[in-house]
Design goal:
Layout lengths: L17 E3 L18 E3 L5 H36 L9 E6 L5 H10 L6 H10 L9 E6 L4 H10 L5 E4 L6 H10 L5 H8 L2 H6 L15 E4 L5 H15 L2 H9 L4 H14 L6 H13 L7 H5 L11 H5 L22 H8 L8 E4 L5 E4 L2 H11 L4
Antiparallel strand pairs: 1-2, 3-4, 5-6, 7-8
Helix pairs in contact: 1-3, 5-6, 10-11, 10-14, 11-14
């Protein structure tokens, strides 16, 4: 405790006096008695000064009270506003938030779309909740029946409007690029450029020169501002998710690489009209590969024909291309399409048969044969009839 020297001047009349006694060190065992020392801190507050101070304290107290009341009312009003939609009638609007867009521009866009009515309150709510710095770019489907807080949560979470894109089984890269272009995600050229970029292909961990065969056919949902590479990455990830460790194990058992499995699956996919025939068609190709017979698959020939009109000729069959399985032995260098799960399963788990040939019966099914004589009879029956 500090000590203050007390002078001998008598205490002034009409003064307030505050006495501070110096406490004894109780812990040290000392006891207080009449001869203990004490110190007096005296403040003389004259009558005029005291009333001014009293009024000042009163004014400050009232001001603080009013301030807190106003703030409380504003906060309560803001809380009510946060849960109050701009319109009870649902009216959907598309709002685009550009990358790097200022919050004031976002406010104007929301107001013009009729999603919010009071931009000032909306901005206050956004700043208090700290959403103003978290809004993500993209195209949003918002409604006037959404409460402001829900709108902010949507914008901050990046729940942009998604568009459906379905890729059928057996489509090749060029056909998929056309689908992407029709959906207005990217141009065909841009998509094909990314899908055939060998460095990008290797970045995705695919041991091939292009992504043909690895763009897994499925239904996808993408935002409008997505890039070709992001679309491709999503499709390749989907492929990896279905190609299970069991598939890898079976591929090794068949002495096939993943690339060879996908290549064979793509041929099976293109040859199949009826889904139940996939494992049987697979067995034909496996049997021919074991016997070192040419696969002689029409779809492998068609793959290299530009602007194919649906009519395959003898000239087409005799053309020397890396994919023409009428001219090469074994599998072509890569897939001719992007196979679905069932085709991949069929390539890995073929039916146990002795079939070496098949011919279309023109009803989406095939006639299978174990020898060339029976096959020729089937060809005459189903292909050469009038």
């Amino acid at each position: 405790m500090f000590g203050i020297e007390c002078n001998s001047r008598p205490l002034a009349k009409n003064s307030l006096h505050f006495l501070f006694f110096k406490p004894q060190n109780i812990e040290s065992g000392h006891r207080r008695d009449r001869n203990d020392t004490f110190e007096i801190l005296r403040f003389d507050i004259q009558n005029g000064n005291y009333f001014i101070l009293k009024k000042l304290v009163l004014i400050i107290s009232i001001s603080l009270f009013v301030f807190f009341c106003v703030i409380s009312c504003l906060l309560l009003d803001l809380l009510q506003y946060a849960e109050m939609p701009a319109n009870s009638n649902k009216t959907d609007s598309i709002v685009m938030i550009k990358p790097g867009q200022r919050f004031t521009a976002t406010l104007n866009g929301l107001k013009n779309a009729g999603v919010i009515k009071n931009p000032i309150k909306f901005e206050m709510l956004a700043r208090i909740k700290r959403y103003d710095k978290k809004i993500k770019a993209g195209e949003y489907l918002l409604s006037s029946s959404m409460p402001p807080i829900k709108i902010l949560e949507t914008l901050a979470s990046g729940k942009v409007r998604l568009y459906k894109m379905t890729v059928p089984e057996g489509y090749n890269m060029r056909q998929i690029a056309s689908i992407v272009a029709r959906a207005k995600f990217a141009t065909e050229t841009n998509f094909l450029s990314a899908a055939t970029d060998s460095s990008f292909v290797h970045e995705l961990g695919i041991d091939a020169e292009t992504l043909e065969g690895y763009l897994f056919p499925d239904t996808y949902y993408f935002p409008k501002n997505i890039t070709s590479k992001k679309i491709i990455t999503t499709m390749v990830k989907r492929f990896r998710s279905i190609f299970t460790p069991e598939f890898n194990k079976q591929a090794k058992k068949l002495n096939l690489t993943i690339h060879q499995v996908v290549t064979l699956a793509s041929i099976i996919e293109k040859e199949t009209g009826a889904s139940f025939e996939r494992p049987i068609i697979s067995s034909v190709f496996h049997n021919r590969l074991r016997k070192r017979m040419r696969l002689e698959s029409d779809p492998t020939v068609i793959y290299c024909i530009k602007n194919f009109d649906g009519n395959i000729t003898r000239k087409h069959l005799s053309e020397q291309t890396p994919y023409n399985t009428y001219q090469i032995r074994g599998l072509p260098p890569g897939p001719i399409a992007n196979p679905g799960l069932k085709a991949i399963e069929a390539a890995l788990f073929p039916e146990d048969t002795n079939f070496l040939y098949f011919v279309s019966k023109r009803d989406r099914t095939h006639k299978f044969s174990t020898n060339i004589a029976d096959h020729n009879i089937a060809v005459k029956k189903y292909q050469l009839r009038k």
